[in-house]
């Protein structure tokens, strides 16, 4: 009986509290369309006080709160609100200053943070101090239209939200402004879009690196060069042919082979040449898991098509957990027209057979193997021609064959390191020393040093691999994709592409 009485008392207390809370909510409810009466203690004073009052109290729904309160404050105007990630009036003004002018509003007190902007390169200076607006207002003149824009930025869950409020008497003009600004900021001008840590970001540095690449920097045997270049060039020009044949206009390529033999420089040369957006994926991981990451990646690629979608280290990206979802996206449950998908891998033998052996996902495989003896000699010959005018260096013909013989299993990256290290030794000596250094001896000494490093690393890797093999049974289904079979199988669709980087970076 006592328990029933206690429960009854609690119910009465909760009901009273609920009624009190409901009453409180009724007295503070925001009007969506009408101006609040003068004298109301809840009427906003100005945009800054709205922002400060909100974040000084326990509230939820920041986006809705700010939107409705600013709409109430400027009730005689229309307020068009957007939190589109591509809408940024400052980037728009920086890239197209002739079409837009911006000045800060005097009657909106800004909230700013002072931040240090580090230079992209140390030699460019010590950096600078700048201000970042957390909250503020600006007057914007665009074409023959004028707007008042109030922006607020805050952290929410795993992301940062920026919400823009465009105050105007012409809402249609504001929407046109949003479209023009977001269209400009989402374009691929002077950036490569990179997906990493669950979101897309524009990477100016990668774009600059791509601009330095050229097919002239890469030496390929004619047969292989024509095959690779014709593949992607013909694809991008063949939309009508694909449509006439009734097949999806999409293409998948894999660049594979040991590191240091030119997959990256060739990929950059391709990205520079094609006049379509390039999207570069480093990881599928996102706050919503790999499935959300994969969905966001392919959704962006479809919206940008025709485009190039690059998946770095494909063997690491695809796991047992995300494989089926990835395959569904690649197979085109949605329209993948115009998608040129390029995957890179140093470990083709680790790649799932569902990707490595089935056309229509990745139709053609191009391998970049270690150079043959003839190619190693040609590489040394190129250096001989490059150094011919240097009177301090003696480069005899006999060194070509000796270098080629001693660099078996070297990648082009290892051979380049041998030449660069030898030349740095010469460059670092005293200029007043009349003695001429023995360049052949220096070069072969570097080759010997790199050979020791190469074999030591290989032995450690082999030991580690053997230990892992003893602990984890290998998949017999993958033995058909061993390195030897991959290189020499006549029935395979694999092109072997030797590569030489001509220009040092």
From TrEMBL:
Region (Disordered): 26-45, 457-476
Record keywords: ATP-binding, Nucleotide-binding, Signal
GO cellular component: nucleus
Signal peptide interval: 1-21
Molecular-function GO terms, alphabetical: ATP binding; ATP hydrolysis activity; preribosome binding; RNA binding
Gene3D superfamilies membership: P-loop containing nucleotide triphosphate hydrolases
Repeat keyword on record: no
InterPro entries assigned to the protein according to its UniProt record, in alphabetical order: AAA+_ATPase, AAA_ATPase_domain, ATPase_AAA_core, ATPase_AAA_CS, P-loop_NTPase
Polar residues bias locations: 26-39, 467-476
AAA+ ATPase domain segment(s): 249-372
SMART domains noted in UniProt: AAA
Gene Ontology biological-process entries: ribosome biogenesis
Family, per entry: Belongs to the AAA ATPase family.
Protein name stated in the entry: AAA+ ATPase domain-containing protein
